[in-house]
Amino acid sequence: MIFFILTRFHDKKISLPAYFLFFRAAERRKRKRHFLVLAILRNFAILNWIKFMDNEKIILTGDRPTGQLHIGHYVGSLRRRVELQNSGKYSKIYIFAADTQALTDNMENPEKIRRNLIEVALDWLSAGLDPTKCTLFVQSQIPELCELSMYYMNLVTVSRLQRNPTVKTEIKMRDFEASIPVGFFCYPISQAADITAFRATTVPAGEDQKPMLEQAVEIVRRFNNVYGETLVEPSILLPENEASMRLPGTDGKAKMSKSLGNCIYLADSPDEVNKKIRSMYTDPDHLKVSDPGKVEGNTVFTYLDAFCKPEHFGRYLPEYANLDELKAHYRRGGLGDVKVKKFLAAVMQETLEPIRARRKEYEKDIPAVYEILRKGSEAAREVAAQTLHDVREAMKINYFDDAELIRSQQALYDQKA
Ligand code: TRP
Predict the structure, then answer these.
(1) Quick check: is 411 in a domain?
(2) Do 195 and 97 share a structural domain?
């Protein structure tokens, strides 16, 4: 019994009640052994309580600045980030442009990254990320991340990196099979550095980032195991619903991508958005208005799933109470694509309008946007430097900060003399 409790006292849910149970038992029986257990339990209960109070929630996530962000990014991540930012549940939120990572497969295209940094920053700000509530920064401006990556490289094997499913797919996609750049191959390690340098507990990201997080967790465990408890274990925060997981392109293809030309960008003008919606892929068998139509795999309905709110019906399509009614009518037949598309266009314009308006404002003062990134990077660097300080200490490479080390080394030679 005692043994059982002792093996469980690391658990904060158990240690406190266990302590009080023992306290009562010990009082009643006044046995010495009980008081010993009591003392141990009390210490653990206090320790756990401190840990519990100290349970800061910190968010970190990043985007590669390789292009403008589109509405797929918006439903998949940006919208969620703004909600998280305004939830008040997180003590710190770090959002960064992963330009160093973007260079791992764009080494010959530095101009592209340089140009898109400001695009991504404008997209963040116009989507509603608030630089007074989150730290917006640029990966390459934090040299501590390179240092940390270097140390982590010793904790990961080549074969483990080769097994990373995201890396595997990306190597195929980029035709890197014959010659993989080392920097690209190691980017999961540098991503672990990004996350851990800021002691992030929570990484909002898509399904595709799961293997990256698993790799980061392994690195954290290995580091803490070898050098002592130093780093915080992160966990992924996946999108909430299916429609947010991956928005198909306007042509119905599985992915929105610049090269396929099937994106609606956050920066698109109202006319561009309307034009793109008018030519969207629907149900290819829904030829006449009277034909029954399919909602599944019908991109217009997928977009409505992601963007439409009940109040939109009152404003733009009062004949229907909600999306289910609209879908039912489409399935039955008698509802034309044009009408559904017009409704979607109204919903999209309403969603994008405030984003466009904010973008217009920020576009008037580009130096101020760079200044936001510069200030954010400066603040982020201080945090990363603190982590690096702890890491160097744990790894025992903090020679010059350790007066005791220097003294004891002298003592060694004094003894010999
Ligand atoms: N790999 C991510 C992407 O391709 C970007 C990224 C870099 C990231 N470092 C990160 C995301 C750390 C989350 C946490 O979009």
Answers:
(1) no
(2) yes
Strand order in the sheet with 58-63: 135-138, 92-97, 58-63, 202-204, 235-237
In a domain, 287, yes or no: yes
pLDDT at 125 over 60: yes
**How many structural domains are present in the chain?**
3
Ligand 1 centre and the CA of 89: distance in Å?
A: 22
pLDDT of residue 86 exceeding 80, the answer is yes
Q: How confident is the model at residue 416 (pLDDT cuts 50, 70, 90)?
A: confident
Indicate if the alpha-carbon torsion angle 174, 179, 183, 186 is positive or negative.
Answer: positive
Tell me the pTM.
Answer: 0.84
Counting from 1 in the atom list of ligand 1, the atom nearest the Cα of 206 is: 15
**Ligand 1 touching residue 62 (CB < 6 A):** yes
Q: What is the pLDDT of residue 12?
A: 47
Domain-ending residue, one of 53, 76, 94 = 53
Q: What is the pLDDT of residue 287?
A: 87
User: Is the Cβ atom of 195 under 6 angstroms away from ligand 1?
Assistant: yes
pLDDT tens for residues 211-239? 999 999 999 999 999 999 999 999 999 98
Cα gap 3→251, rounded to integer Å? 63
Give the contacts of 394 (CB within 8 A, at least 6 positions apart).
223, 227, 228, 230
pLDDT tens profile 10-30: 444 455 666 666 667 666 766
Q: Name the band, by pLDDT with cuts 50, 70 and 90, for residue 247.
A: confident
Please tell me if the CB atom of residue 141 comes closer than 6 angstroms to any atom of ligand 1: no
Task: Identify whether residues 44 and 150 lie together within a single domain.
Answer: no
Q: What is the predicted pLDDT for the residue at 253? A: 85
Does residue 173 contact residue 257 with C-beta atoms inside 8 Å?
A: no
68/198 same-domain check: yes
Residues 37 and 94 reside in one and the same domain: no
At residue 302, φ and ψ (nearest 5 deg) are -60, -40
Q: 186 C-alpha to center of ligand 1: Å? A: 13
Q: Looking at the structure, do residues 201 and 240 belong to the same domain, yes or no?
A: yes
Domain around 275: 258-363
The reply to whether ligand 1 has any atom less than 6 angstroms from the CB of 85 is no
Cα–Cα dist 120/205, whole Å: 16
Nearest residue (by CA) to ligand 1, atom 6, is 62
